[in-house]
Design brief:
single chain; 64 residues; mainly alpha
Length: 64
């Protein structure tokens, strides 16, 4: 039963847009910083991704 719940939750997480936005909110600024792009640009990208997460959350609430 425990494996079923773990498999179900992991499957739901991998299908979630908010999950992938959260992953990208860490990965993309790190890549941008590594490539030497202006820190202000990295911050703007980070904030844009956070807005996507909030917007997706609002959309998910509106569905239900």
């Amino acid at each position: 039963m425990k494996k079923f719940f773990q498999k179900y939750l992991i499957g739901q997480m991998l299908k979630s847009k908010k999950f992938w936005y959260a992953i990208s909110s860490v990965v993309i600024p790190a890549i941008v910083t590594y490539l030497g792009v202006d820190p202000a640009t990295a911050t703007e990208l980070y904030h844009a991704i956070l807005v996507l997460i909030v917007g997706q959350g609002i959309a998910d609430v509106a569905k239900k």
